[in-house]
């Protein structure tokens, strides 16, 4: 009996179940229409597959986003859409994303995908850089997204402690990730942005709060 093959199948099934059990809930993408969602996910698909070597962790990350926002389109279908983008995709991206806070989530998710890649391709880094320029990121905003992505990837609470210095609209874009590993309070100008307590060694998300300026 080929136990190695059986183990590989079991691991795949376990990974699939993990994706279904832990969707990324409250991702800000859920608040936008289908066109915005499609552009967003297609960009992430392109980033993961630039070198035709998308790994399982990257796929599962995308699936967790899709499940969390209740998007019924499968990941394979998004990869197909991403392989046939319209010629006006970049102008439309600039038009629809430049003035909305979702652009911070987009760049941060791209940085997360870069962080869980088996190896970083220069073209992946260049794509993120060019997208950030098209969406009119300044150095400060790019630095903030980089720090948030680092905190998420490393599950590092110490970086989160500095988030209180960030604008509220930026903070709210990352609550969906912070709930997975941060225990404490984040406040800004005496307004509670996020609070969570540990119960029985596990995080309780019942005290999740947001503030809209």
Strand and helix map with partners:
Elements: H1 3-21, H2 34-48, H3 56-68, H4 75-82, H5 89-97, H6 102-115, H7 122-134, H8 139-154, H9 157-160, H10 168-171, H11 175-178, E1 184-188, E2 191-199, E3 202-204
Overview of this protein structure:
- The protein has 213 residues and is mainly alpha-helical.
- It has helices at 3-21, 34-48, 56-68, 75-82, 89-97, 102-115, 122-134, 139-154, 157-160, 168-171, 175-178; strands at 184-188, 191-199, 202-204.
- The protein has a three-stranded antiparallel sheet, with no helix packed on it.
- Strand 1 (184-188) and strand 2 form a beta hairpin.
- Helix 2 (34-48) packs antiparallel against helix 3 and helix 2 (34-48) crosses helix 4 (75-82).
List keywords for this structure.
single chain, 213 residues, mainly alpha, 3-stranded antiparallel beta sheet, 11 helices, 56% helix, 8% strand, disordered C terminus
């Amino acid at each position: 009996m080929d136990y190695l093959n059986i183990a590989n199948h079991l691991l795949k099934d376990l990974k699939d179940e993990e994706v279904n059990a832990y969707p990324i809930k409250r991702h800000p993408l859920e608040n936008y229409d289908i066109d915005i969602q499609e552009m967003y996910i297609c960009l992430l698909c392109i980033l993961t597959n630039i070198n035709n070597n998308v790994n399982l962790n990257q796929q599962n990350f995308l699936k967790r986003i899709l499940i969390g926002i209740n998007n019924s389109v499968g990941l394979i279908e998004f990869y197909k859409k991403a392989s046939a983008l319209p010629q006006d995709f970049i102008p439309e991206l600039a038009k629809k994303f430049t003035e909305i806070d979702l652009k911070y989530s987009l760049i941060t998710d791209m940085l997360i995908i870069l962080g869980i890649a088996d190896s970083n391709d220069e073209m992946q880094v260049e794509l993120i850089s060019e997208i950030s320029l098209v969406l009119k990121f300044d150095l400060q905003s790019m630095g903030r997204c980089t720090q948030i992505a680092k905190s998420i990837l490393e599950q590092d609470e110490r970086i989160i402690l500095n988030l209180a210095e960030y604008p509220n609209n930026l903070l709210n874009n990352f609550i969906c990730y912070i709930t997975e590993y941060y225990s404490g309070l984040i406040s800004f100008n005496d307004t509670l942005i996020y609070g969570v307590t540990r119960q029985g060694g596990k995080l309780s998300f019942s005290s999740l709060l947001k503030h809209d300026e």
